What does this fold into?
Amino acid sequence: LDVYANDNPVKYDDLSKYSLLFPNEQLETEIEASRSLIQATSYTTWQRVCARKGLSLSRIFSQENKIQRLNYQVQDLRRQLVQCRNENQVKLTELVTELDQLPLRGV
It folds into this structure.
């Protein structure tokens, strides 16, 4: 069972976002009821695909976890970069203010 939004696959945990677009209680109930089915179906589908291709499901999950950790590290580095830029901008602004306050010589 695959769920699609705008021709893109939707993870089972993303379905609650789409329930906000359709404020229909029946739809929300159906989404909640189908979560475990989607998760189970996805898992068994993964098992079959992995078995056919000779892949280890645990290895794939391990790689997904590593990718997730790398994504968190990238986000953290981006936050640090923004913070560094902001701090440097403040220092630059303070320096310009100091320079503006210095008396001009030779004029």
Notes: Residues 11 and 92 are 45 Å apart (CA to CA). Residues 1-6 have pLDDT under 50 and may be disordered.
